[in-house]
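Async update (no meeting this week)

Hi team, since we skipped the sync, here's where things stand on the single-chain job. The sequence we agreed to prioritize is pasted below, unchanged from the tracker. I ran it this morning and attached the output directly underneath so nobody has to dig for it. Comments welcome in thread, and please keep replies under the output.
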Amino acid sequence: MGNAGRWGWQDVDAAKECAVAGETDLHKTLKKEACRWLFRMGYRCIAAEVRLKPLGIVDAVGTGVFRPYYNYLSVGRELPQVCFVECKASRADFLRDCSEDGQMSLCLIEREGNLRSRKRKRGRKAPLRQAVGLGKFASCLLQPMANLHYVLAPTGLLQKRDLPPRWGMLTYGEGGISVVVRADWQETARIEFVESAIARTLTGDIYRADDRAIGSVNREIFAQQTALAERIRSIRPNVILSPTHVGGMADA
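Output:
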């Protein structure tokens, strides 16, 4: 599986650069390594920069169905799993996704009010939304969509005490990715919703890749046509005279 995994991810790297505006090279490297790690762990539906409506954009997402006793809980049945990986290249980036003290309590109060208003408006499905002011780490717990949540950071950037509740820690160094803290299992997950979001992400990447390929072919054709036009313009017309015309000119 190791050789097949390396071969597959070379193609993925060639087809897709997981980049966003203003992103550092370290953060791009962390996202690629997170996708490789998910593949090695057995996840088969994987994408980077997946947009999930109530949570925002998740750096790396993987889903899969794991065999009995080879899943995260080591249970004797097939177990579907969804894993989120948030990549943090700096401590400031990590702190931006942390919630302030007491913010989760306010969000729970707000959710209770929303549930009461939803009961009054029966028959109308309320859309998923993220509570205002709540960081991504806490939002993933209040809007459960994955079974496992990990933070990936360079070695030495974060400490175990910095981790939000139920989140695990992955570190990236010279030896690759290491599991420092195992994530707590979250029973509730929405694998169908997450897989549809992965499909939308990958489809958009395919279309953008096709646009780039068509653009490169068009540029090549335009360059060939330009070179041909230059050659045509450089050719000077040669006047070919008939023998009769040449003889008449000699008599004259």
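Quick observations from my side:
The first strand starts at residue 45 and ends at 52.
The radius of gyration is 29 Å.
Reply here if anything looks off.
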